[in-house]
Structures are given as C-alpha cells and as structure tokens.
Specification:
Radius of gyration: 28 Å
Number of strands: 2
Strand order of the largest sheet: 1-2
Largest sheet: 2 strands, antiparallel
Helix content: over 70%
Length: 255
C-alpha cells in the first residue's frame, strides 16, 4: 500500500524513494564537483596535492552526509509534507548553521593551538601527511556538525514553523517537481557556496604553512624558488666565466 500523500507536497517516504535517492546522488556529484573546480582555480604554487585535497574535502563530505541524513530523518517524523520540512532544515543549516560551523571551527582551532595539538589543527597533517591526523580532524569536524544540528533542531521546536511549512511549497501542485526543487536545485546552489567557503576556512592553515618567516620577512614558495634559482646561477657564473676565458686563451695550432 502506497504511503499517503497530502493534497500538496510530497508524501511520507518520498525523500528515500527511488526518485529521491536518484536526486540525492546527482546532488552529491554536482556539489562536490565545485570542490574540484575550486582546486583547479587555486594558484599553482598554492594548489594542494591530491592527497591533501582529499583529506580537506573528505571532512566536508562526512559532515555533509551526517547533516543530510539527519535532515531526512527529522523530515520523515512529520505527518505533513516532508519536503517542506527538509527545506526548512536545509535553509536553517545554510544560514544559522553556517554561522555555528564557523564559530565551531574557530573555537576548536583556538583550543588545539593553545594545547599545541599540532596534528589536530585543521589542514595540518604533518610531513609526510599522516592518516591519524586526518582521522582526528574528521572526528572534531563531525562533533562540530553534531553541535550545529542539535542547535538547529532546538530552533525548530519554536512554535510557528508549521505555518511556514504549510505555505513554503504549497504553490507547487506536482510532488515530483517539489522533490526536484527541494533535493537538487536549491541544495546544489547553497551547497556549492557552503562547500567553497568551508573549504577555504579549513584549508587556510595549510596555505599559511607554505609561507616562511625569514629574518622577519614573509617569503612565499615562488619567491623561494626564484631566490634559489638566482643563487644557483651566481654559483655557476664563475665556472662559466673561467671556462670561457680558457677557450679564448687557448693557442691556435700552426697550419
């Protein structure tokens, strides 16, 4: 027997139906493609190796999956339109939740730096990169997501959300069109922005690590390479000059 569906909106269980799962797979593919685009838009001297990029972005993937399935679980608890409740959860995650994530990353980063837990600083994995550091940072980031989702769930207990839920997508008569908007179009646009911002936030320490403080001045990798090339040229110059001088002073054999 099919799950009951309200006059407007998608019915109970629609988010985990065959069409809903297909939309979620497309969303994941499109959203994480923005992180690929971001990597290739980074300056070459600051572009992360693939292993570092995977460590950075996989933390977001784990956090995003947790938030996504938490929203589906919470949305299916209602007897009303679950699509509109999912959209409310998602909008709160992208606004208030984004602020909470930023705050959580800042607080956690300050604590681990104060305690000098080097491998728990977001974006720092050691040299060579250590999987243990990545696992520890994933756990910290997941805890931040749990904190964020807990606060958002408490906000949803405030009276008044039911009325918003009833009018949010009530103008869309087609439940599949509503599902496409809720599970693909709106999340892709917002997730693309969120992933870009959060990736910049958690990779910043890695980028700063590549700059050295030499005699009180900041030196970038490109500047170091240029200086090294100049030093090599200066070291080789006397040998080249001596070789050329010997060739000019060599006596010419009599014919």
């Amino acid at each position: 027997m099919a799950a009951p569906r309200p006059a407007h909106g998608c019915g109970s269980g629609a988010l985990l139906g065959r069409f809903g799962v297909l939309l979620q797979a497309l969303l994941a593919l499109c959203a994480f493609s923005t992180l690929m685009l971001k990597r290739f838009r980074e300056p070459k001297e600051e572009r992360r190796p693939w292993r570092i990029w995977f460590y950075d972005t996989s933390k977001q993937a784990i956090g995003a999956l947790f938030i996504h399935f938490a929203n589906i679980f919470l949305s299916d608890l209602t007897e009303e339109d679950p699509c509109s409740l999912y959209l409310i959860n998602f909008i709160l995650d992208a606004t208030l939740g984004m602020l909470l994530i930023w705050l959580g990353v800042k607080v956690v980063s300050w604590i681990v730096q104060h305690k000098k837990y080097t491998y728990l600083v977001f974006g720092e994995y050691g040299d060579p990169p250590q999987a243990a550091a990545w696992i520890g940072q994933c756990i910290l980031y997941l805890l931040i997501m749990v904190f964020e989702k807990t606060v958002i769930s408490l906000v949803l207990l405030i009276p008044g959300w039911t009325k918003l839920q009833q009018i949010l997508l009530g103008y869309i008569p087609n439940p599949q069109l509503e599902l496409v908007l809720v599970m693909l179009v709106v999340p892709f646009i917002v997730n693309a922005i969120m992933f870009w911002v959060v990736d910049s936030l958690i990779m910043r320490k890695y980028k700063l690590k590549d700059t050295l403080d030499v005699n009180g001045s900041t030196e970038t990798p490109r500047a170091r390479r240029t200086e090294e090339s100049q030093m090599m040229w200066l070291e080789d110059a006397p040998h080249v000059a001596l070789s050329a001088s010997c060739k000019r002073s060599r006596p010419v054999a009599a014919s």
